[in-house]
TrEMBL record:
<dbReference type="InterPro" id="IPR038081">
    <property type="entry name" value="CalX-like_sf"/>
</dbReference>
<feature type="domain" description="Bacterial Ig-like">
    <location>
        <begin position="1130"/>
        <end position="1222"/>
    </location>
</feature>
<feature type="region of interest" description="Disordered">
    <location>
        <begin position="94"/>
        <end position="124"/>
    </location>
</feature>
<feature type="domain" description="Bacterial Ig-like">
    <location>
        <begin position="956"/>
        <end position="1025"/>
    </location>
</feature>
<dbReference type="InterPro" id="IPR013783">
    <property type="entry name" value="Ig-like_fold"/>
</dbReference>
<dbReference type="GO" id="GO:0005975">
    <property type="term" value="P:carbohydrate metabolic process"/>
</dbReference>
<feature type="compositionally biased region" description="Low complexity">
    <location>
        <begin position="1"/>
        <end position="14"/>
    </location>
</feature>
<dbReference type="InterPro" id="IPR032109">
    <property type="entry name" value="Big_3_5"/>
</dbReference>
<dbReference type="Pfam" id="PF16640">
    <property type="entry name" value="Big_3_5"/>
</dbReference>
<dbReference type="InterPro" id="IPR029058">
    <property type="entry name" value="AB_hydrolase_fold"/>
</dbReference>
<feature type="compositionally biased region" description="Acidic residues">
    <location>
        <begin position="105"/>
        <end position="114"/>
    </location>
</feature>
<feature type="region of interest" description="Disordered">
    <location>
        <begin position="1"/>
        <end position="22"/>
    </location>
</feature>
<protein>
    <recommendedName>
        <fullName>Bacterial Ig-like domain-containing protein</fullName>
    </recommendedName>
</protein>
Length: 1322
């Protein structure tokens, strides 16, 4: 495979068309592969390597695993005549149109006059002591994201303040530096060999870490040497995602530790599980321990509750700088993101042009950077500041005298002895870099250089890092003037040239004109205003004109091309030029921004353009105009004397120095004497600057009213933008491949991203260069970008050509974990060497291919043995793409999908395939579609059966033996007679035995042995062993004791069998069968006493035994009659008229267990009259029944009897009659009067007759009798409804007066009398 870092002569058989001592050029069929062999491994730098052919850069280079070979792909045909191939670095690429023979030195930088004073120095140690400790989970403890399964170290240094409360967390990540130093060749690159030292780059930031720890911040500095050893070779994005994910993984480990949870990681190097306690202990042998005598060991308990993860800061140096931006974007894609509130990329690369939302960002950029010489990290803030609707401070800090390395003591020769150098000067004291008049360190450069000493640079880094994190993580606002662009300096760095430009948070800013879009500017006089972007030399046509056409990439941090997305428009801004002092531009202040009274200053970013001479500068005036026309004018040079002066340039390195860097210009509004509530216009006019030139040019951006503020960091989940691998056929002519661009979820705002494909620029390229802006409407989640491809009918030496696809420069979304992917073009006309790549088929809709779910593979059979063939089908693939199948993880062949996307594969199971349930997988070469299924791979077995004895008799004990042969025969054998299971037995050493102790019964037998299927072995059955066992004959006789019987009386008899003395006889009568056991050839027959009356045929059949056959059937008849009963009834001797006649009926004659059942009829007659039914009653289980009926309403003599009709078992019967007399009801009469009364006084007496309900309305006679007299009728009274009457009587003589009431009775009631007595007095 050829890999395009960007994406004739007669070739040799392998396509080679040019070569030298250590290089070759190979024709790949439209593209050329340039390969350079190095005499030593490539230097470990953060920059990206390139190849130069005859001094011309032809493309970014891919580094081989050994680091000794560089390969670049180009479509530049000039390489066919190459004379020399050398290695270069991406940041050094490009030339200037004019190389100065001499340049004037830049003027001494000046401080800003009105810069705030009194800002405290954050490098001064604080009040807290702190503990320093190391931890290491091992060198291969975690899988690195995006680096082909490589495992890396989880190791670092912890700075823990000694205080009670939890400390905010700041994490440091070093950059790309040598991982292993020492003797020995290490093809694997990582881990280091025993003869090598693992360079502890993470231990080089003690100054900043200790400054922060002394003020109550916990710092974790982590190692990333495994990434450094593998990123160029194996990571599409050069390791950015790996670094970002390592940061997040480390935060997770320590967050768990803070909560008392221990992390355990597996170190593959030692094949050991390492706990947090293990990682913290035994660190004395780590190389970092030798650099710090104050290292102690911590325990997990020391970390519990000590870390505050509610505000997290990240610093990344070099490629670590891109690592912290990657961590920020990866974090934004999490459902539960960490609270990252600050990032500080230090001298970063920006290969991926990532944008980061919602996080205050400080870029620290060293002017004399000899590694990332283009200071491409400038893009980070340029790209992010308007990409999101966020509210955070973004700050650019340029340290003019700093190089790349000396912010880290482990990268500084005077501080550490292994693998260190001055990245600018190198090791050659007479080189152009070392003697450079601006950044050099030897010779005459000592008198002119702007370089800081290594200690000065390190201390500067300490101050800036400590101050930034104390501001952004700790909320210590007193440090804001260091970073808000106001020019404040602190004691430790007051003498150094440090230049700060800031973009204030949206809430503290009212934009007037960003100068990044057209239409805001009006020109006057000789002024022109051109909206521009990027630097010249872009491979893809640009919408806007270039901002620079004469300077090299390293001189243009705002527009320098980057590793990925090099053709994406960079830092659009407005270029103002003029030829005399009349040149002026004017900008109207939007209505929303006219009231500037709440803001502190007007801010503008500006730089001299490339036409301004080195050592000189230009100047402008800025005029504010209010609604009355009043004006206030100030010169830019009075506000920031350095802003419009060209930065230092040298003759030794003219393509690296003399950079264009925008500076912030701030006009304090308190000094403006106009109406700040109604500012209408801003005028920017040419002025005479340094060098007295009346012509000039500047770059302008970010015009706004603003106030100094940090803004508000927020940890929110963002939409992510991704792409996916694209694989297409070369074809025979022009075509296009579609690159998918996908959002993780629908967005609520438009999302913008740029897709770049680093292809070729000529018609012979396999894939063309592409850069396209993609805009997602709210709700849209997938779209595609076409990339031109070019095919032919010729074979080539490479099976595929690979180009890098990236999705960068996002707005309203962040780059996701799949923002980088390959575009692979397959050589479909054959290869001149090696093996062709599998067919990619016809590309479908990439969005549909990405959204497809995992398919299903269907095997034709569920079980298959090694060496056998199983046919598997699947669907949903591309037409004509190759689909690779595996069985249990082992490749078993590739098959081409049909035109309808189905694939049928005849897979031969390997002889050594793992046995058991095996997963089937299919992976499509083009679409990447996957499908899965399962099939059972079972080892074949064979089973053989033998019997002992071979010809058994009936019921003779038999031993069954099954011999099982095969690879996996541990299991169970089931022995069967036909379909009847005789038993099971385990296979022991290939044999299973079953003892049939009772032998086999007479009849036909078919004996088999079946070895049961196991998880790894197939079932097998033995041959059938058949035999016939015959029985003897039998006779039978039946005799019953009687043929007639009565219910309740048992019937007995005997059955006899000839031919067998044992066995059973089945006796049947009616619906009942019972089995009799023979004793001596006979058995007693006993029909139950409770047999229901009726006629029965009793049958008997000998059932046979194992050796004697069953007999015929004999029978005899018997009749069972009903059993007689006797009924008896009880009744009362008398009842009153209308009363109840109640009694009991008893049926006798029943036998135990069964009594007569059913109903009895109770009959009654009057005198000699006829019998009639009075009532019926149901017999209980005891043969009795209770009855009751109502007597007549007149007196009479009754006869009562009970009649039983019988039931199925018992006969009918009638009881004898019982006499019952029906008599009148008894009444009771009473008289109630006063006990005493006066002579001849009226006496009220109450007469009551009961029962009242029956006597109401009847007459009662009342009599009185004087003492010594006779009864005299006084009155006749009628009883009321209550059976009572009141009468009046009187006494005629002194003495006792008796009162009597007489009730005469009725037809149903008897007569009754009642009396009372009253004493009569005078």
């Amino acid at each position: 495979m050829a890999t395009a870092a960007n994406a004739a002569a007669t070739p040799t058989t392998n396509g080679e068309v040019a070569s030298g001592d250590n290089w070759t050029v190979t024709d790949l069929g439209g593209m050329y592969e340039v390969t350079l062999d190095l005499d030593r491994p490539l230097e470990i730098r953060s920059d990206a390597p390139t190849l130069l052919v005859d001094g011309k850069a032809v493309g970014l280079a891919t580094e081989s695993p050994s680091g000794r070979t560089l390969t670049a792909l180009t479509d530049d045909a000039s390489v066919l005549t190459a004379k020399r191939v050398t290695a270069g670095w991406f940041s050094d690429a490009g030339t200037t149109s004019v190389k100065p023979a001499d340049v004037d030195p830049a003027p001494e930088p000046e401080d800003i006059d009105d810069a705030p004073q009194g800002t405290p120095d954050p490098s001064v140690p604080g009040e807290y002591s702190y503990t320093k400790a190391l931890y290491s989970f091992g060198n291969q403890a975690i899988e690195l994201a995006g680096i082909s399964g490589i495992r890396g170290e989880v190791e670092g240094k912890v700075y823990l303040p000694d205080m009670d409360e939890a400390a905010p967390v700041v994490l440091f990540l070093h950059g790309r530096h040598t991982s292993c130093n020492g003797a020995g060749s290490n093809p694997a690159r990582w881990p280091c060999l025993p003869t090598q030292t693992n360079i502890p780059s993470y231990a080089g930031y003690d100054g900043a870490a200790e400054a922060l720890a002394s003020h109550g911040y916990a710092v974790i500095s982590i190692g990333a040497n495994a990434i450094n050893a593998n990123d160029n070779q194996l990571a599409l994005d050069y390791g950015a995602q790996a670094r970002g994910q390592l940061i997040l993984d480390t935060l997770s480990i320590f967050e768990d530790a803070n909560e008392g949870k221990s992390t355990t990681l597996h170190d593959a190097q030692t094949d050991a599980d390492v706990t947090l306690a293990d990682a913290l202990a035994g660190t004395a042998d780590l190389p970092a321990a030798a650099l710090d005598d104050d290292i102690v060991e911590l325990t997990p308990a020391d970390l519990v509750g000590k870390l505050d993860f509610s505000r997290i800061g990240l610093m990344g140096h070099s490629r670590g700088g891109e690592g912290v931006t990657s961590a920020a974007t990866l974090n934004a894609g999490l459902d539960d993101p960490f609270d990252i509130v600050s990032i500080l990329p230090l001298a970063p690369v920006d290969f991926g042009r990532m944008t980061t939302p919602n996080i205050p960002t400080m870029l620290l950029l060293p002017y004399c950077d000899g590694d990332v010489s283009s200071q491409q990290g400038q893009h980070m803030n340029d790209d992010s500041r308007y990409a999101f609707d966020d509210d955070v401070l973004r700050t650019d800090v340029w340290v003019m005298g700093a190089n790349h390395n000396f912010f880290n003591t482990v990268w500084t020769p005077s501080k550490y002895s292994l693998s260190t150098s001055d990245d600018w000067s190198g090791t050659n004291a007479t080189s152009a870099r070392s003697t450079d008049s601006v950044c050099g360190t030897t010779g005459a450069a000592v008198d002119t250089t702007i370089r800081l000493t290594d200690d000065e640079q390190y201390d500067t880094g300490t101050t800036l890092m400590a101050g930034w994190f104390r501001l952004t993580v700790g909320g210590e606002d007193e440090f804001l003037p260091m970073f808000d662009g106001s020019g404040a300096k602190v004691d430790s760095i007051k003498d150094f040239d440090i230049r700060v430009s800031a973009t204030q948070p949206a809430s503290a800013r009212s934009d007037i004109a960003t100068f990044t879009t057209a239409g805001a500017v009006r020109t006057y006089g000789t002024a022109t205003a051109t909206l521009c972007a990027s630097m010249s030399g872009r491979a893809v046509p640009q919408v806007l004109p270039y901002c620079s056409t004469t300077l090299a990439s390293a001189q243009l941090p705002h527009w320098t091309s980057v590793r990925f997305g090099g053709d994406v428009p960079a830092s659009p801004m407005t270029r103002m030029q003029w030829t005399n002092g009349t040149g002026e531009i004017r900008v109207s202040v939007p209505r929303s921004a006219r009231d500037a009274s709440a803001h502190e200053f007007l801010t503008l970013k500006a730089s001299p353009d490339e036409s301004v001479a080195y050592g000189a500068g230009t100047d402008l005036t800025v005029t504010l105009v209010d609604g009355t026309g009043a004006t206030s004018t100030t010169a830019v040079s009075a506000l920031n004397p350095n802003a419009l002066v060209r930065l230092p340039q040298s003759t030794q390195n003219p393509t690296t120095l003399g950079k264009i860097v925008l500076h912030e210009v701030r006009l304090p509004l308190e000094s403006v004497d106009i109406d700040l509530t109604d500012v209408r216009e801003v005028r920017i006019k040419a002025a005479v600057g340094l060098g007295d030139s009346v012509s000039g040019g500047v770059y302008l951006t970010d015009l706004a009213f603003a106030s100094s503020a940090l803004g508000t960091a927020t940890a929110t989940t963002e939409v992510t933008v991704n792409t996916a691998p694209v694989r297409v056929e070369e074809g025979n002519g022009p075509d296009e491949a579609l690159v998918p661009v996908v959002l993780s979820k629908p967005a609520t705002k438009p999302v913008t991203a740029y897709v770049s494909v680093i292809g070729g620029t000529t018609a012979t390229a396999k894939a063309g260069m592409q850069m396209a802006k993609v805009v997602f409407a709210p709700g849209q989640t997938c779209t595609t970008v076409p990339v031109a491809t070019y095919g032919d009918a010729a074979a080539s030496s490479a099976a595929t050509t690979t180009y890098t696809v990236s999705v960068t420069n996002t707005s309203n979304a962040v780059m996701g974990t799949d923002a980088f992917a390959p575009l692979v073009v397959r050589e479909d006309d054959g290869v001149t060497a090696g093996t062709p790549a599998p067919a990619y088929g016809v590309q479908g809709d990439p969005c549909a291919e990405l959204s497809a779910t995992v398919g299903t593979l269907t095997p034709g059979v569920e079980k298959v043995g090694p060496g056998e063939t199983v046919t598997v089908t699947g669907s949903g693939f591309r037409a004509a793409e190759s689909v690779a199948f595996t069985l249990g993880g082992v490749p078993v062949g590739s098959f081409v999908a049909a035109g309808d996307g189905t694939v049928t594969a005849a897979l031969v199971v390997p002889q050594d395939a793992a046995l058991g349930t095996a997963e089937l997988t299919a992976l499509a070469a083009g679409s990447g579609r996957t499908a899965t299924g399962t099939v059972s791979v079972l080892a074949p077995t064979s089973t053989t059966l033998s019997l002992a004895p071979e010809l058994p008799g009936i019921l003779e004990p038999v031993t069954l033996t099954a011999a099982v042969e095969g690879v996996e025969v541990a299991g169970e054998v089931t022995f069967l007679d036909g379909e009847t299971v005789l038993g099971t037995a385990d296979v022991v050493e290939g044999v299973a035995t079953l003892e049939v102790a009772d032998g086999f019964a007479a009849g036909e037998h078919a004996i088999t042995a079946t070895f049961g299927e196991t998880a790894t072995a197939a079932s097998s059955s033995s041959q059938v062993v058949s035999f016939l066992l015959a029985k003897g004959l039998s006779t039978i006789a039946l005799a019953l004791g009687t043929s007639d019987s009565v219910y309740g009386t048992p019937v007995t008899g005997v059955v006899a069998v000839g031919g067998s003395t044992t066995g059973t006889v089945t006796l049947t009568y009616g619906s009942t069968s019972q089995r009799l056991t023979l004793v001596g050839g006979s058995a007693t027959v006993a029909l139950p006493a409770g047999l229901t009356p009726g006629s029965y045929t009793v049958s008997a059949t000998f059932d046979g035994t194992a050796k004697v056959a069953a007999s015929g059937t004999v029978s005899a008849d018997v009749t069972i009659a009903k059993r007689a009963t006797a009924a008896a009834a009880t009744a009362p001797t008398s009842v009153t008229v209308g009363g109840k006649v109640s009694g009991t009926v008893t049926l006798s004659g029943g036998i135990a267990g069964t009594k007569p059942s059913g109903k009895v009829t109770v009959q009654v007659k009057k005198g000699t009259g006829a019998w009639s039914t009075a009532t019926t009653a149901t017999l209980t289980s005891k043969g009795t029944a209770s009855y009751s009926f109502t007597a007549p309403t007149s007196t009479a003599t009754l006869s009562v009897r009970a009649v039983y009709a019988g039931d199925a078992r018992y006969a009918a019967s009638t009881s004898s009659a019982t006499a019952v007399s029906v008599v009148k009801k008894v009444t009771k009469t009473s008289v109630s009067a006063a006990s005493k009364a006066k002579l001849r006084a009226k006496i009220s007496a109450t007469v009551a007759v009961t029962p009242a309900a029956s006597t109401a309305g009847a007459s009662v006679k009342v009599y009185t009798k004087q003492q010594g007299g006779s009864w005299k009728l006084v009155t006749t009274a009628t009883l009321g409804a209550n059976g009572k009457a009141t009468v009046s009587v009187s006494g005629t003589a002194v003495g006792t007066l008796q009162i009597k009431a007489v009730y005469g009775g009725s037809g149903t009631l008897s007569a009754s009398t009642g009396t009372d007595a009253v004493t009569i007095t005078k």
